Amino acid sequence: MVKIIMHGCNGKMGQVITGIVAGDPDAEIVAGIDVVDNRDNGYPVFTDIDACDVEADVIIDFAAAVAVDKLLDYGVRTQTPIVLCTTGLSDEQLAKVKECSAKVAILKSANMSLGINTLMKLLKDAAKVFSPAGYDIEIVEKHHNQKVDAPSGTALALADSINEACNEQYEYVYDRSQVRKKRDKKELGISAVRGGTIVGEHEVIFAGIDEVIEFKHTAYSKSVFAKGAVEAGKFLKGKPAGMYDMADVIG
Ligand SMILES: NC(=O)c1ccc[n+]([C@@H]2O[C@H](COP(=O)([O-])OP(=O)(O)OC[C@H]3O[C@@H](n4cnc5c(N)ncnc54)[C@H](O)[C@@H]3O)[C@@H](O)[C@H]2O)c1
Ligand SMILES: O=C(O)C1=N[C@H](C(=O)O)CCC1
């Protein structure tokens, strides 16, 4: 049995996870944290994380970047491992995540789905073939109109996978509107689309002369992220300080 504190419990992801855990005999949400306290979840909700006095094995986080600094401090102070799923963190926050992982276990992943985490591995192999052959690489992501960060954390993580396999030779380009010159070979373009209720789409395009290879992942519901986050929580219970990712969970 893993005891969970759900950070961002009254948001979209927090509510999907609340539903999934309710049907899981091996997991229990013992407390929630959210600045909005507008529903009965069947567990206590704290509007300030520092007021939470409930002990847990792990914190699952789907909240907002602005909440991450206090979350990290809480995890270190109470020695509670953190599954960190919020995206759009600043460079300073990413540095703080690394620093805190020396003191408590942190599993950070911009996308908890099996599909995206498998795609990251496949892209490394593809990039090693298509990059030396001179193919241009572009990523297009699409999400719902409530998303605040752009590009998505997943698009950046996919780009990082490719760049790592290619000796970090690519520079990410997010906007070509002010540039009047041809595309450089060392650019990796990342474009974001926002609209309606799109759960999450990511396309990675390798465009060569007279042929195009596309990898596409579509999430049809938020459950794919929620299930992965609960599995990550079970994995992280009792783990020593350090940085972990979904590859550690999936194997
Ligand atoms: N890693 C993944 O697989 C994955 C999947 C989906 C979403 N996300 C990310 O998770 C985050 C949340 O997504 P969502 O769709 O549930 O958003 P949401 O806006 O529906 O929910 C966020 C919740 O966090 C709460 N919150 C905001 N500030 C807070 C604070 N200071 N302290 C405590 N709670 C606070 C809000 O009140 C809200 O209830 C986003 O960053 C999103 O990109 C990651
Ligand atoms: O709905 C969101 O917001 C999502 N955010 C993550 C990201 O930024 O990559 C994962 C997909 C859904």
From TrEMBL:
Its main location: cytoplasm. It is an enzyme of class 1 (oxidoreductase). (S)-2,3,4,5-tetrahydrodipicolinate binds at H144, G153, T154. Pathway: Amino-acid biosynthesis; L-lysine biosynthesis via DAP pathway; (S)-tetrahydrodipicolinate from L-aspartate: step 4/4. It catalyses: (S)-2,3,4,5-tetrahydrodipicolinate + NADP(+) + H2O = (2S,4S)-4-hydroxy-2,3,4,5-tetrahydrodipicolinate + NADPH + H(+); (S)-2,3,4,5-tetrahydrodipicolinate + NAD(+) + H2O = (2S,4S)-4-hydroxy-2,3,4,5-tetrahydrodipicolinate + NADH + H(+). The keyword Electron transport does not apply. This is 4-hydroxy-tetrahydrodipicolinate reductase. Catalyzes the conversion of 4-hydroxy-tetrahydrodipicolinate (HTPA) to tetrahydrodipicolinate. Homotetramer. GO terms for cellular component: cytosol. It comes from Coprococcus eutactus. Residues 2-112 form the Dihydrodipicolinate reductase N-terminal domain. Residues 115-250 form the Dihydrodipicolinate reductase C-terminal domain. NADP(+) binds at R39. Pfam families: DapB_C, DapB_N. NAD(+) binds at G8, C9, N10, G11, K12, M13, C85, T86, T87, S109, A110, N111, M112.
